[in-house]
Amino acid sequence: MADVMTSAQPTPTDFYLERLALQTQDRKERYKLLVDDLDQHDIASLHAALGGDNETDSEGNKDSAALSVGRRLALAYAEPPLAPPDVLSTDTSGITRLRTAPPMQRTPLAPQQWSTNPFVNMGRRFKRWANGDFRRRKRESPSASWKWVATRRRWILLVLIFGQSIIAANQMRTVLPGQGMQWLEITILSLFVLLFAWVSAGFWTALMGFFQLLRSHDRYAIDSEVGDEPIVAEARTALLVPICNEDVARVFAGVRATLESLRSTGNDQHFDIFILSDTSDPDIAIQETYAWLGMCRDLGAFGQVFYRRRQRRVKRKSGNLDDFCRRWGARYRYMVVLDADSVMSGQCLTRLVQMMEVHTRVGIIQTAPRASGRLNLYARMQQFATRVYGPLFTAGLHFWQLGESHYWGHNAIIRLAPFMQHCILAPLPGKGSMSGEILSHDFVEAALMRRAGWGVWIAYQLEGSYEEMPPNLLDELNRDRRWCHGNLMNFRLFFSQGIHPVHRAVFLTGLMSYLSAPLWCLFLVLSTALLAVHTFSTPDYFPEPGMLFPVWPQWNPTLAVGLFGVTALLLFLPKLLSVLLVWIKGSRHFGGPLKVLMSMVLESLFSMLLAPVRMLFHTRFVLTSLMGWAVQWRSPSRENSDTTWGDAIRTHWSQTLLGAVWATGVYVMEPTFLWWLSPIVVALMLSIPVSALSSRVSLGRFCFQKRLFRIPEETQPPRVLRRMVNLLTRMNTAMSAPSFAQVVVDPVPNALATALGTSRHNDVEPIRQRRDERVARAVAEGPAGMSSRERLDFLDDPVMMSQLHYRVWVDSRAHHSWFDLGLPGRESKYLPTFS
């Protein structure tokens, strides 16, 4: 700064006062800054004068800017003040501090080490039995009756699945030309039985869900015995929102809409909200603090809405939850975990707490979130599918599982005491890609909760829980890549000691959700290989020596058509039943009876086009996970983004080429067989245009106007969703936060960042020396020379932040980009208001 000034030009003090006056709220205070003799001071004395200490030795104080933090904030936010006195206070050194979290109440957490080797577990059990101390653990449950009902239902499910699969296997054997006697046919038949059983399980789950939803009352529903009981003062609930480099406007629009809905119920005094950030982008971190402060000021939510950004980011989301439990878990009886795109109504949250209060041996209650909020054609079809078909499968899961159900990691309430005691996750032992930190923590936490004797239920009929879908196929595949790796890792816990059989089945279904893709792919490849064998080889009519009669290859097209029809019926009947249920319950909010039927048909055709593409991608995900390739854990897109043609071509060109080569090879061998394979190869060859066009927002809007893929949340949006959309629109147009350079240079943003810093270490020589070195290097190199990690360190450390602010203004060697980027024009960065 000093390099560009001459003695006749204004001094740095003049520029500093001018900038501070520009951001001062009160006109009289602004006038005093400009006309008093403060411009006669140097920068150090100016800060001392602003801080009320005119006797400070400017040469001996290396943190002069820290003295004026409180005064700078008071000038910018005079009426109303920035925060209440208990929030905006001072630390032990007398420096202004803005508290973003409540006082800690630490609880020691110790994860139990995994025992995943079944032989070791059997040996330990035998040793305990031999020593005479083998005792069966007693497990309590909300009600003993549901356990017997669940056991009977699950045996019936197993009989249905295996009986149906055995019949289908016999039919498949007769379809094969060698009657399933050759090694290739045996392999194909084995794969078919496994995959048919997987399809059959989904069919019976949806079928029982259909009958469950037709009934007016479910005596085993978790809310069947819950009234509108008042919530006691001790039933404190924390709403946790773990985020990492998310769309800040979307996150805080959802949080604010949820809080406002809670306040409308009159029960908001029982709830606190924690924004738990693992953000690694410094500019996004600054936006988060500004959004948090703006919301707290607008709603008077200081002391109810808290913000914490971790400096040591381990174990991803589960580590973030562990950190909350360790610091503040003892203050609350329950926690509700939300995703960055979650929105929940106040009535839904209140109902969850009431359920927990009535059922004192329930550990987790999972809601069934409804997808909404997307405009892309792809996302709207997925929203329609989850809204129409999803309730059948969710109700079916509840029918078979009851109190040993799923937990999906968000939009669920958890009893904190048993969670902290039993559900803290240790890393998986060993080396390689299938060891280390558990990625998909939700299924594992549910299994540990049930192992400890606490129930895990699905409130499948509870309304008021919402989430968003990925906007396009590429974003969905990026999410599936992470989920695939996590589910493969979780299967290592299948033989872990004490896990309930139902949750072992949950680990198996999680595995099959992705392993079914390479199995289908292998089934199709072997079927093509079988065709090639019978096309290019001479049949062996006497496979066994001494045979008197030949064995003729047999093709049974009629049986093949029948088997194909049965398989298609298992896949598509749940969709027909879903539409029938919508007709019975009322289809007006789905666009009408004809429109919902047309939407189902179009969505089914679209799913058929996507199934082979997903199959190949999931196959690749499984193989790369097993080979140990790194997983990119990026936050999903929260925008209605289109897929460009370039991205579609780069992503799907290999599937297109494979489909063309596959179709050509089959046509050369046997043209008639191509008709059977056409749904696969045609879908692969069309993958590029399908991926690109389905992501278009314009097509999504067109279908909305034609009442296609309508859902009630679009036709008649709930109040909490309408409020969220309105807030998001206003935040996207009005919300503004300073950049890192502005936080360093600009007086008021710097004061705010300094007050927010949490790394307030003791003033000891090694730390002081390290701070001086880092500040000097940052001053000389400018913001471009600092990594994201270094910028975050400065945001965390109030001493380094205030020292950097002071040095940039007084050091003639400061890099010019600090002022080029830190003072862009006369724009002032106030906290936005959305009242």
From TrEMBL:
Mitochondrion among keywords: no
Compartments (UniProt record): Cell inner membrane; Cell membrane
Ranges of residues in domain Glycosyltransferase 2-like: 240-419
Listed GO MF terms: hexosyltransferase activity
InterPro entries in the record: Glucans_biosynth_gluTrFase_H, Glyco_trans_2-like, Glycosyltr_2/OpgH_subfam, Nucleotide-diphossugar_trans
Topological type in the membrane: Multi-pass membrane protein
UniProt-listed Enzyme Commission number(s): 2.4.1.-
GO cellular component: plasma membrane
GO BP annotations listed: glucan biosynthetic process
HAMAP family membership: MdoH_OpgH
Name of the featured protein: Glucans biosynthesis glucosyltransferase H
Gene: opgH
